[in-house]
User: Which sequence fits this backbone?
């Protein structure tokens, strides 16, 4: 190929000389110095090669930079085949109209918090009182129906605006693990995961949210009215003339609590009947809930690990907005007709019977498995504690921020 190029160069040079009358025939070719042509050729080729190499290097540099930049992007698993701008990482529980801007033709701001409850039709009046307050404070309401009854809630105006999920004989923690994934509720600042047996006469959801935001509480609960509630742990009892408290004091008996206490249930603890989580705390708590441990016993003692910092500061009980814990029997108590899948409404029949007979008949047909439920709850608590201990032992990279000497751990 080099010889062919040289021949072209020689022929061109000879032709130019002939046109200008300079030399001719063989002289025109002889006058050209071959080494100079060779040098010119290689210089030209080398220069072009250098330019090409520079362009390729520059292009590769841009590609490498772009590739490095793209590798550093945090893409949700499974979305790698899509352009980033089309990927929607989260969802919500907002209902959308089939046409138009909104269902009622008016623009409305999205809800900022969520109330989720496990409910049964027997407590519908109590639930109605709770939901009405939350609806007025622009909450999304999600009801988990553990008795399978949904249609009978339609008598309430808010029912069609609530999210209804029904699976028979499951707890709110079973529902929460499956239907409140952090990516689903990521748009809500606070998640209220409540039981159904709570009196809310002295509770206002909007004021409560303002307080926990102002106090920096990532995990909280409303205080319990000690005169009307069944109080299992002193820290949950309302303190008069107080806005919020984060610890309790116990100077007698076992399990004493004082200003030096750093562990639950003296400090950094809420009960599981009415917890309220920030969305950051809920993302952590959701991962801690075990799939098959549906009563979630034992989880309350570890909630402080999800407090997004110091549990002695970020976990608290709100005294100024308080509730009554009625402690009604719900889980494990069923009517025989519920077990057989028959209808629920026998009110007209009972009205014709003497009150004493109707009451006795009602109690006779009830199947009470509460003792079995409680026994299962204790079993699950032991399993959870064992899993926690094993997880701590096996994870060599995890450092316990609340590690205590064995002799200081209160049983």
Assistant:
């Amino acid at each position: 190929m080099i010889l062919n190029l040289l021949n072209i160069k020689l022929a061109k040079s000879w032709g130019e000389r002939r046109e200008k009358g300079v030399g001719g025939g063989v002289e025109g070719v002889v006058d050209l110095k071959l080494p100079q042509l060779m040098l010119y050729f290689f210089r030209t080729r080398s220069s072009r090669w250098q330019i090409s190499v520079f362009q390729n290097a520059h292009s590769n540099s841009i590609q490498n930079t772009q590739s490095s930049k793209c590798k550093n992007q945090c893409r949700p698993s499974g979305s790698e085949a899509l352009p980033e701008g089309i990927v929607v990482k989260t969802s919500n529980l907002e209902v959308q109209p089939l046409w138009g801007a909104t269902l009622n033709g008016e623009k409305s701001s999205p809800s900022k918090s969520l109330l989720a409850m496990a409910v049964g039709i027997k407590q519908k009046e109590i639930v109605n009182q709770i939901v009405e307050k939350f609806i007025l404070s622009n909450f999304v309401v999600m009801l988990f129906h553990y008795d399978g009854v949904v249609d009978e809630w339609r008598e309430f105006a808010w029912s069609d605006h609530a999210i209804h999920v029904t699976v028979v004989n499951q707890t709110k923690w079973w529902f929460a693990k499956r239907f409140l994934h952090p990516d689903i509720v990521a748009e809500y600042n606070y998640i209220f995961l409540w039981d159904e047996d709570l009196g809310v006469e002295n509770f206002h959801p909007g004021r409560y949210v303002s307080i926990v935001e102002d106090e920096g509480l990532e995990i909280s609960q409303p205080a319990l009215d000690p005169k009307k509630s069944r109080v299992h742990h002193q820290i949950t009892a309302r303190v008069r003339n107080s806005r919020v408290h984060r610890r309790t004091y116990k100077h007698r008996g076992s399990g004493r609590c004082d200003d030096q206490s750093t562990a639950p249930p003296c400090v950094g603890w809420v009960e599981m009947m009415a917890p309220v989580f920030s969305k950051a705390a809920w993302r952590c708590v959701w991962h801690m809930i075990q799939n098959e441990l549906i009563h979630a016993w034992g989880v309350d003692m570890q909630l402080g690990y999800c407090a997004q910092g110091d549990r002695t500061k970020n976990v608290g009980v709100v005294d100024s907005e308080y509730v009554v814990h009625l402690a009604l029997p719900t889980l494990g108590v069923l009517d025989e007709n519920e077990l057989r899948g028959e209808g629920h409404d026998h009110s007209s029949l009972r009205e014709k019977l003497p009150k004493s007979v109707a009451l006795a008949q009602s109690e006779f047909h009830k199947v009470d498995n509460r003792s079995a439920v409680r026994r299962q709850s204790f079993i699950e608590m032991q399993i959870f504690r064992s899993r926690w201990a094993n997880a701590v032992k096996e994870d060599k990279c995890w450092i316990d921020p609340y590690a205590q000497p064995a002799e200081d751990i209160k049983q």
Q: What stands out?
A: The first strand starts at residue 113 and ends at 119.
